[in-house]
Amino acid sequence: MEANQLLKQLRKERNLSQRKLAEGISERSTLATFEQKGHRIAFDTLKAYLDRMNVTLEEFDYQLNDQALSDKIKLSRRMQQVYYQHDHATLTSLIDTAKQAYAASDDFMYYILSSQYTLILNNEFQKQDTTERYEIEQKVKDYLNRIDTWGKFELSTFTNLLFLFDDTFILFQIEKLSQKKYFHNTLNQQYQIYTKLLTNAAYLFIDRKNPTALSTILSYLSSDLPPDNDRIRVMIRFFEGVLAIFHNDKEHGQETIDGALAVLQFIRQDRLAEQLKKVADTVQPYHAEAITNPKTK
Known about the structure:
Helix content is 71%, strand content 0%. The protein has 17 helices and no strands.
């Protein structure tokens, strides 16, 4: 289906006349000519038409492609599926497919797919290829640093590959994102992707035993938290408990953690509660390494 035909179908299904849809956006003739002949129209005009019909650009694109997913999205979902099925042979083959697609198209998403699952398999099989890991890290860093207008792809890439980067780089990028108020961004409201980034960063800093970085992430989580996001509120309580243990306040920390886990169990989030308990069991008071002064002669 062509874009003009789809727009006409959407308009008629919503019982809107051309005059009503175009009112305050464009001349009616602009809409009529587009619907009849498919002449080009300005992006802002098309977006305004869709907004009046309560249709997002993503939904329009999905319908426009006859509800078909792109090849790279299909490949991404297939790789995720076989990974969770522990079908390593098929996943290895799909990694090669992604590498070939990247070589042919120079589409960075194919590079991310092949690299991400390569690193995952290397980790599972305890294969330490530091050269390959370093090359991936630098290439992804160069890409992310080059782009100021991060969208879903960049956020997902950064979130999924956090473990590649040092703490300084992670905190620097999150600081930049926080200045753009991603918690209130439509992207986060639709996909919760920025929220996932912050919670993943908190897990990582717990694993790396970095209470200072964890405290910074908590400040981001807390400062712009939507009032109706109770699940994240419970996660914040959990992280606060972990932070208390890091600071050697074991009793208060464990009490806070237990309270958060109890709430998760009450709202039937048993699996998440179990995962968080395993994380909590690894936490011990943090002791910075003592700095010894050189002896004076």
